[in-house]
Design brief:
Blueprint lengths: L7 H9 L7 H7 L18 H13 L21 H16 L9
Helix pairs in contact: 1-4, 2-3, 3-4
């Protein structure tokens, strides 16, 4: 099974990282019935949760656009409980949104 339809920049980012099929947690988060719902996901380390959430957010952040327009304010905020997790989220989303012109900042 492959990832659901993605904009070309996101598909390119996944291809460059050799992501060709979603993990079970990614399938669950990206499912149509999960759209516009609050999700609480529990899965083991390395299951692809960060990427799953990054792809799910793309629906709202990019819509059908291929690139981000210049924004006057942040479009999303992710709160992580530790510095290490914040840096992991930053690294994952930076490469995922890089080709779409996304700017990911950690503080």
């Amino acid at each position: 099974m492959s990832f659901p339809a993605l904009t070309p920049p996101l598909a390119q980012a996944l291809a460059e990282r050799n992501y060709d099929s979603p993990t079970p947690v990614q399938l669950a988060v990206l499912a149509d019935d999960a759209r516009d719902r609050d999700l609480l996901v529990s899965a083991q380390t390395g299951s692809g949760k960060t990427l799953a959430y990054g792809l799910a957010m793309a629906r709202d952040l990019l819509g059908d656009a291929e690139r981000f327009e210049q924004a006057a304010a942040p479009l999303a905020l992710i709160v992580a409980p530790t510095r290490e997790l914040a840096m992991q989220v930053h690294r994952e989303l930076a490469w995922l949104y890089g080709h779409a012109g996304g700017r990911v900042v950690s503080c």
